[in-house]
């Protein structure tokens, strides 16, 4: 049956678009993690919506599983192929179709790299609000399918808030084109919401209409030292009141994380934390934002109110970049902190401080010698956790670490995935965040849109 499908794909799309056998490069067999190398039946490098529809019609007719692949930068195995799957690669489905400066929208193909979208918007003096470290490789379709977030969610919201319309191909090859450009459109169900965050399990996104914003012409930031998480909450409240819509980022770093990062080669230490928390706060300081004087007043008043004990305000772009380097140099973890595992979770904002304390205690109690680091966006309830166990402690107890972390997330009624998705690696823990009725409803939606279960099988549910 597989041979028949392969011949049908080649006949319909041609040898050049359908890779098989030795022609399949290793990059299609796994993602950046290098785990689970599986051989697909074929890799279809689609070049348009009709190619996607043709591929799905054939796979649906043969009841054959399909894996969707974008930039392969995901962290939960969502793009990893199963043995013998047909891979639909969106790498050739790239490009900006249109920018409507009057409506502040952009229509793009799903395979367009995020950085290309950002640069195209800036050429029109506009701004695309989602930004990730993998911007040069990750694709817009994947960003939408995982409802990506990033550092500036506190001002602009998640990827969901940046999408006005979508074109999607369903499991049976049906093309649903709903490239809405209007901010207000209440004509029936908002169909696009089904596919945003669905990780390719309900349909394959081929095009999107993205919402753009005025570009921040200038920003200013500060590193602030805080004595407690309660002080962080008070400082966040002040930032929201005094900075308003100018507030772009509010990044909290716990003492272990800040200490680890500032000991790395090439990282400066602008402020001494001495076991306290550090917050990186950034504001728009352009013509429509908060003035430099107002920003400095905001920081000074927080010092006077004893919410912060010390602060350093960036006096140049170079210094601001140095501040951000402390927060963003997490790529050093594999080199400096191996073996380790990381977590992307959400908690009610007021409870994050207590969660950190309790999780650190539980990890040290159940896994002696373990080291845990904590940092996150906080203003949008997102916390990142990194857990390291030295090699001399024996085998790396990842299942036990996950049990401790996700068990406590469940106790706090948080989310096991803030912005990375579920994929295969968090699937076992979905029940810690979603109740039986919610999971049952997800299954019913999946059954309705993909009754044969061919789209990204084994992912999410």
From TrEMBL:
GO MF term set: FAD binding; oxidoreductase activity
Cofactor(s) required, per the database record: FAD
Coiled-coil region: none
Record keywords: FAD, Flavoprotein, Oxidoreductase
Residue stretches making up the FAD-binding PCMH-type domain: 36-215
InterPro entries in the record: FAD-bd_oxidored_4_C (IPR004113), FAD-bd_PCMH (IPR016166), FAD-bd_PCMH-like_sf (IPR036318), FAD-bd_PCMH_sub1 (IPR016167), FAD-bd_PCMH_sub2 (IPR016169), FAD-linked_Oxase-like_C (IPR016164), FAD-oxidored/transferase_4 (IPR051264), Oxid_FAD_bind_N (IPR006094)
Pfam families hit by this protein: FAD-oxidase_C, FAD_binding_4
Gene3D superfamilies, sorted: 3.30.465.10, 3.30.70.2190, 3.30.70.2740, Uridine Diphospho-n-acetylenolpyruvylglucosamine Reductase, domain 2, Vanillyl-alcohol Oxidase, Chain A, domain 4
SUPFAM superfamilies: FAD-binding/transporter-associated domain-like, FAD-linked oxidases, C-terminal domain
GO BP terms: respiratory electron transport chain
Family designation: Belongs to the FAD-binding oxidoreductase/transferase type 4 family.
Protein known as: FAD-binding oxidoreductase
Organism name: Orrella marina
